[in-house]
Design a protein that fits this description.
38% helix; three-stranded antiparallel sheet; 6 helices; 161 residues; rod-shaped; alpha+beta
Length: 161
């Protein structure tokens, strides 16, 4: 098969899509780098006798067998790619979910910081996380939620860190 004036071996009968997938991951022709965005999908596949797709191209299903199809319609496979609309709709700028949840509240309710004469490192981290949440506008909806969910959230954050 040719890709950009490059012939690629076909080691065994496979589908046209399988050949494409193996080609872009480097399983076929590992020395030849083909960059395809993970968001690109095959829109259509055309087979032709010439390097340039034109009036003599035949459209093929991705599931056609590659050797059989290229023998019948031409050795040149033209993959027409597009960026999936479904994927691009999810490419909106990411937002911090915790910040969004906490910004919807009006009153400031936070877990109480630990107040011992001597704090160990984990307790200092616990207080630092509460202070970070306060400085970044984080709140819980009630004092009860702050003392239950909030404490659990801060404790779990400490354990993760």
């Amino acid at each position: 098969m040719l890709h950009g004036w490059y012939a690629h071996p076909i080691p065994y009968e496979m589908s046209i899509k399988e050949f494409f997938d193996k080609l872009i991951i480097g399983e076929i022709s590992p020395d030849y780098d083909i960059s395809v965005s993970p968001f690109e999908t095959i829109d259509r596949i055309e087979l032709s006798q010439t390097l340039v797709a034109g009036a003599t191209t035949i459209q093929a299903s991705p599931y056609c067998q590659i050797i059989e199809s290229t023998k019948a319609f031409g050795l040149n496979i033209h993959y027409r790619l597009n960026i999936s609309d479904m994927i691009t709709s999810h490419l909106a700028p990411c937002q911090n979910a915790l910040k969004i949840l906490m910004q919807t509240q009006k009153k400031i309710f936070l877990p109480s910081p630990l107040q011992y004469k001597r704090l160990n490192n984990k307790q200092v981290l616990y207080n630092d996380i509460i202070e970070w949440i306060r400085q970044n506008g984080g709140v819980w909806s009630s004092i009860e939620n702050a003392n239950t969910q909030g404490k659990r959230f801060v404790s779990c954050s400490c354990d993760i860190i």
